Structure formats: C-alpha cells, structure tokens
Amino acid sequence: MAVVVPFESQPTPSIDRLVGLCRADMERVNAMILSRTGSEVTMIPEVANHLISSGGKRLRPMLTLAMAQLAGYAGDGHIKLAAAVEFMHTATLLHDDVVDESEMRRGRKAARMLWGNEASVLVGDFLLGQAFRMMVEVGSLRSLEILSSAAAVIAEGEVMQLAAAKNTATTEDEYVAVIRAKTAELFAAACEVGPVIASLSKAEQTACRSFGMNLGITFQLIDDALDYGGKAAKLGKNVGDDFREGKVTLPVVLAFRRGSEEERKFWRGAIENSEIRDGDIEHALALMTKHRALDDTIARARHYGAIAKDALALFPDSAVKEALVETVDFCIARSH
Amino acid sequence: MAVVVPFESQPTPSIDRLVGLCRADMERVNAMILSRTGSEVTMIPEVANHLISSGGKRLRPMLTLAMAQLAGYAGDGHIKLAAAVEFMHTATLLHDDVVDESEMRRGRKAARMLWGNEASVLVGDFLLGQAFRMMVEVGSLRSLEILSSAAAVIAEGEVMQLAAAKNTATTEDEYVAVIRAKTAELFAAACEVGPVIASLSKAEQTACRSFGMNLGITFQLIDDALDYGGKAAKLGKNVGDDFREGKVTLPVVLAFRRGSEEERKFWRGAIENSEIRDGDIEHALALMTKHRALDDTIARARHYGAIAKDALALFPDSAVKEALVETVDFCIARSH
Questions:
Q1: Pairing outcome for strands B108-109 and B104-105
Q2: Which of helix, strand or coil describes residue B276?
C-alpha cells in the first residue's frame, strides 16, 4: 500500500544537489571513517564496516559538511566532526538493534545476528570513544559540548521510548518529545557544529540548529509513515515492522485516538499484548486509511519541514542553501 | 578455600588513609554524581543509582582526587573529572553485565535482571554522554583527549577479550594486554588527568599515569585470583564464577600451561565447551594449588604493584603519596 501525497512542485525533489556539493569533502570523511575504524582487534573493523559500508545515505555527516559550507568555513575541522557524527549514529544503530532485538538493518542481517549482541554493544562503545577522540582533535570546546550533550540526550530519548513502549495512550506531544531526543537531536547537533567552528554569530548557529532539529523530526515522521507503506521495502524493512514490534509511532497514536472503542481494543491487543494474527496488519492499515492517520502524519512532517526551511531564511541565497532546502522536500517526497 | 599470602609488613594495609584524605572532595563528587544522574525519565536515575549506590569503593574517582592533591591542584576541575571517571566505569559495568549475561553485581541483582538488557545498554550510553559533558565543562582539552582515548581503548579491550573468549591457549602476554586495555587504562587515565589539570611537567604526568596503569593491572590480577578463593563472597561474587562463565584469566592460563595433557583436556572441556559438572570447580582449584597458579598470579600482581610504587618515587614524600602507595598494598592484601 503506497502513501500518496499531492505535491506542489513539478520536478521530484532530490538529494543529488547536496551530494554533489559535498562530494569532495565526503570523500575525505569516508577516508577518515575507514582509518578510525581500524584496530588490531579484527572484529572491530569487521563489525563497524558491515554497518558503515551498508549504503546508508550519510545524511547526518553531509549536513555537517553542508552547514560548514553555508557558513563559509575554511578549515579542516568539519571533516572530523562529520566523521564523529556518523560514528555516533552508527553506535546508536548498533545499540538499537540489541535493544530492539532487530534481525535486519538496511536490508542486511543486523550485526548482532552475525557477531552477537556482545560485539554490537562493545563495538558501539568503541565507535563512541573514537567519535570523541576525533572531536577532541578538532579542539572546539563548544562543538564538544554540543555533541556530548547530544549523546546524552539521544540515550535519554531511547530510554524515554523504552519506558513508554507499547503504551497506546501516548499523546502526540509525548511522541514528538521522544523523536526530538532520539532522532532530531543528532540532526540538530550535526547542523550546529558547522557554524560554530566557522565562528558565525549565535543567531546563525541557532538557525542552523533549528534547521537540523526540524529536519530530523520531519525525517522521523516520514520514516514512521513509510513503515506502513510507500517504499519501505527499499529501506530494508518490511511493511508493518513497527506494528509487529509493538512500537507506538504517530500513525498509531492518531488512529488509536480517532478510533471507536472497538478499534481501540484492537490496537491495545496488538500493541500492548503483542497479539498479532493473520490479517492484523491489513486491518491496521485499513484503520489508518479510514482515519487519515498516514496522510496526517505526513502533514505533520510537512509542518516541521516548513519550520526547517524558514530557519535558513536569514542566510543569503546560495547553491548550498538551496540544496539544503531541497533536502527537506526530498525527505518528505520519500513517502510517495 | 582462601588464598594465603605471606606478608612482610605487620599492620594490614588499608585504603582508609586515602579515603580520609579525599573525604571532603569525595562528598562533592558524590553530590555531582547524584545531580548528573537526574533526568525526567525516571528509569535513568533508578538504573544508574541502583549500581552507583551499591557500595563500590569508588577507587577510580578517588585516584583522580588523590592525584590532583599530590599535584597541588587548587581548582575545581578534579571534582567533575572524578565524577566523569566514575560514570565511565559505571557505564562499562552496565554494558559488561549485558555482554556477560551476569545475574549479580556487587551482591545485588544486576540492573539487567531488574530493568532488562535494553535499559542497561541505554542508561550506560546516557552515563557515557553525561561523563563527556562534565569533562567538556572542565575545559581541559588534554584531559578530554586522555579520557576519550580511554573510552575507545576500554571498548577495544572488551572486544579483544570477546574474540579471545574460551581460548585456553591464551598466553600470559595476551591476557595482560587485555586487562591493560579493559581495566588498567581507566585507572591510568583517572590518575593522569590530576597532574594534567594542575599543569605539572610531562614527566610527572607520565609518572602518575604509570602508577595508575600498574595499579590497575595489579587490581585485576588480584580480582582474578579472588574469583577462585579468598573473600570473593564479600565482593558479591561466588567462588568460581569466572570458571563457570568460561573466562580464561591468569590462574587458568598458568594452570593450563603447567598441566599434563590429561589436565589440559579437563580445562578445554570445562572452558571451551562449557561442560561443568559437579566437582569440577573443586578439581580446578586442586589443579591450581598443585601448579601454584593462584600464588603465582598474586606474585605477578606484586610485580606490577612494585612498578606502580616506584612510579611515584620522583614526587616528594607527603601524606597523600604514602596513602597512594599503601593503596597498592591494600589491593594486594585483598587476596588474603
């Protein structure tokens, strides 16, 4: 089942322009990533590279590079900061797979299925340590502050999610608070460190942070919608994975609240007691369609996307600014 | 079965003098720890404080405080660095329990038995993030470098141990390399940051680091011996826990190498294939006694302890220096 979104602009928004503008820097980031996963303990590069080389878009480090460009930064620090951001993200994925007991990640077997939970936890810790080493090498205390705070906030968001797990009574506010912490905070930090090392004004730093934060929320909401349709298969996930795992994402929050008492009973049974039977996913999708839960999740995503775009308005027009704005549209366009 | 070690000096070495000298600072560290485990996500302080308040000796942060005192440091930075060191240690314990599937920790149920593996992984990540935040607040880039490197090295050591698990052919050198990384590195870093923030000379920084590194190795070797006897019960572990978990520690390395082919078959069966039957622990202890494996593990510990003491020789005599030296003897004396 595809989620269909009416679109204003004619050409399909793409991330290609951003990729093109960051290509040279990204090659340096990739080399840095490769060199910093090296260890005499062969299991470390094996586990790390299994995930790192599995074809993620590297959106987060690309944001650091693009923001450094937007800020007119002339130094080298953005390369290590971008690599650190990707390591933090990879560490989170390794730990998430253990926490969620996931079997697949990006269309491949999750690292924990190949090397075990132990290796996933420990290699995640190693990457986090290496991320901090790289940040320290850059020598910007403010960047260190931003990224170390992000590390704590992300973990806090994950625990928040764990504590709220399988709770169908979750409000939209509570849900957005969780994804703000667990997903959007790293987008925000990735975007903020660029203007910080370029010594832009506080207002400009805050603008970039706001862009990242709202793009991150947009990104996660679209991901939540995609889990119930669209091109989910291409992302290496199956339609309804979140449903099967009892995850209360925004589509469920909306369908549950808008549903009849009978329907809420269905959601509680499926989510709270993990009673998934044949036809349940189809029924869940039908209820979401009935209550416009997916369409409205995407509408909410558009709202945060609009805030992200406005956040960059105070910067003069440039190719990289346009590419960043298009990235917001690209994230939303993933849903159809 | 107690491990009996002949002792030269009459009074039993104690850690009390060190505790006394650091008391005022340690109260500030404890207050800092309490305030930095705070979170609106109630599961975080619950999990963190379950472990933090479980009566560990807080040896590692105490070393940071003592070294700052030895260095004549007059500022406040040592408080946050000591708290950061304890958080790093606590994060490691939370993750270790998941990796080792431990049920007990310090005589209490392990956090994972009460809140699950998920919470243990994520609260560990949160504490690591908070540790870095505190370090960043202190603002010493060199301290950040030391502690972030330590974080990566510790994780590397744990993976090394994982990769070498259940390998009875492990050499003593390989084993010491593992404990150097997974245990002693944090002792070394905890000791090094004191003279660093006090701006002592490089030679003095290296001396303090060397003290910590060798004390850490001593500490771990004694711990390994204790697992097969001594006051292990008081530490909240059962005699033979390492054996049951198939851990190849130095007592096993020595007993295996010194044993007959018949005996090696026993070790391989027990360690490599986890075939533990009634009477196996008693048999393992008898073989260790026959080959002096525990006594010699303690002799090795004494060797590293002596290096630790000599490392401090270039500092003028003082109460805190004497207390640090006595701490080495205290660690060794734990074994009887």
A1: antiparallel
A2: coil
Residue A217 near residue A158 (C-beta atoms within 8 A): no
Average pLDDT, chain B: 91
Which among A274, A229, A266, A220 has a CA at the least distance from the CA of A247?
A: A274
Write down the pLDDT at residue B234: 45
| Greatest Cα pair distance in chain B | 61
Q: pLDDT per residue over A167-200, tens digit each?
A: 999 999 999 999 999 999 999 999 999 999 999 9
**Rounded CA separation A106/B45 (Å):** 33
- Give every CB contact of residue A30 below 8 A, 6+ residues apart in sequence: none
Residue B294 Cα distances to A128, B222, B253, B265, B300, angstroms: 37, 9, 11, 20, 10
Q: Please give the Cα distance from B306 to B292 (Å, whole number).
A: 21
What residues make up the domain containing B273? 16-333
- Is B159 in contact with A44 (CB distance < 8 Å)? yes
At A48, list the tokens: 């790390």
In whole angstroms, what is the distance from residue B85 CA to residue A148 CA? 15
Task: Quote the number of domains for chain A.
Answer: 1
Task: Judge contact between A168 and A287, C-beta under 8 A.
Answer: no
Show Cβ contacts of residue A66 under 8 Å, excluding neighbours closer than 6 positions. A18, A21, A22, A194, A320, A323, A324
Cβ-based neighbour number of residue A318 at 10 Å: 13
Task: Select from B126, B196, B247 the residue whose CB has the most chain A CBs within 10 Å, as the one to mutate to test that interface.
Answer: B126
Looking at residue A171, which CATH number applies to its domain?
1.10.600.10
Mean pLDDT of A224-242: 72
Query: pLDDT at residue A4 above 80?
Result: no
CB contact under 8 A, A126 and B152: yes
Does residue B7 sit within a domain?
Answer: no
Whether the pLDDT of residue B283 is over 80: the answer is yes
Residue A232: the pLDDT is: 45
Q: Are the CB atoms for B155 and A122 separated by under 8 Å?
A: yes
The reply to whether B256 falls in a domain is: yes
Q: DSSP labels for B49-68?
A: HHHHTS----HHHHHHHHHH
For tokens 């080389």, name the residue: A53
Best of B118, B140, B147, B153 to disrupt the A interface (most A CBs within 10 Å) is: B118
Query: Does B3 map to a domain?
Result: no
Listed residue (B216, B8, B13, B187) closest to B88, CA to CA: B187
Please indicate, yes or no, if residue B276 is contained in any of the structural domains.
yes
Average pLDDT, chain A: 91
What digits encode the pLDDT tens for the residues B155-201?
Answer: 999 999 988 888 999 999 999 999 999 999 999 999 999 999 999 99
Q: What tokens were used for B193?
A: 């940051």
Cross-chain Cβ contact A128/B128 below 8 Å: yes
* Residue in chain A nearest B153 by alpha carbon: A126
Range from A9-23, A285-299, B1-15, B196-210 carrying the lowest mean pLDDT: B1-15
Token pair for B238: 């059962």
